[in-house]
Amino acid sequence: MSQPTDPHQPQDPSQPTDLNQPQDPQGGTPASPPYGQSASYGQGTPSQPAAEQPAWGSAPSPATGPQATTDQRPAGGREAGFFRSMVDFSFSSFITVKFSSFLYIIAFVVAALMWLSNIVSGIMFGFMWGSMNSYFGEPSFSPVPLILAILFGWIPSVIALIAMRLGLEFAVATVRTAQNTGRIAESAQHA
User: Fold this and answer.
1) Exposure winner among 9, 92, 111, 119, fewest CB in 10 A?
2) Angle of helix 96-133 relative to helix 144-152, nearest 10 degrees?
3) Cα-flanking dihedrals φ and ψ of residue 176, to 5°?
4) Residue 10 counted as domain residue
5) Sign of the alpha-carbon dihedral angle for 32, 34, 40, 46
6) 26 falls within a domain
7) Closest by Cα among 180, 178, 169, 160 to 101
């Protein structure tokens, strides 16, 4: 069994050398690539030169291999609908991306209703406060709770809307990451 050799130490000329490494014309030591150029590790084999293989991270050209399809559709050729996705126990189709805008619209309506309920509560508290202040007289209305509800009642609604938006963005980003990872794995299997 041969010992691994250090590329910086002189090699015995009787030992076989790696065919992929460039050789120094004066001796048997491997020549390093010129300054500024990296060695092509794993870029080519003796039967297939490095020029035919695409660089890492680049899209394969039609000459180098089959293109992977980018749409994930079920076997029927069309996207699964809401009810079909709901009974998909393998979780191969996601409904989060499709219905996140619908959920956000519902959250927006609920936030507006929360603000309106704060205003109505301000009106009711204004009547209660006015009736407490007028123990012996006619009940009146105090505008302070209504003004406070109009000025500051929107803050809990906006905080709830921001929390819903952040949750939906996180869910959509997670699902899109899962979809893209599946596409990459599928294209790697076909390549």
Assistant:
1) 9
2) 160
3) -65, -35
4) no
5) negative
6) no
7) 169
Between 3 and 115, the more confident residue is: 115
Q: How far apart are CA 60 and CA 62, in angstroms?
A: 7
Adjacent-strand bridge partners of 23: 30
pLDDT tens for residues 169-187?
Answer: 999 999 999 989 999 999 9
In the block, residue with structure tokens 């980003």: 173
| Residue 65's pLDDT band (cuts 50, 70, 90) | very low
Is the confidence at residue 70, as pLDDT, over 50? no
Print the domain residue range for 129. 102-190
114 closest CA partner among 78, 80, 164, 64 = 164
- The span from the CA of 159 to the CA of 89, in Å, is 35
**In-domain check, residue 169:** yes
- pLDDT single digits (tens) 72-119: 444 444 567 777 877 878 877 788 888 899 999 999 999 999 999 999
Mean pLDDT, the chain, rounded, equals: 73
- Say if residues 53 and 44 touch (Cβ distance below 8 Å): yes
Domain tally, the chain:
1
In a domain, 51, yes or no: no
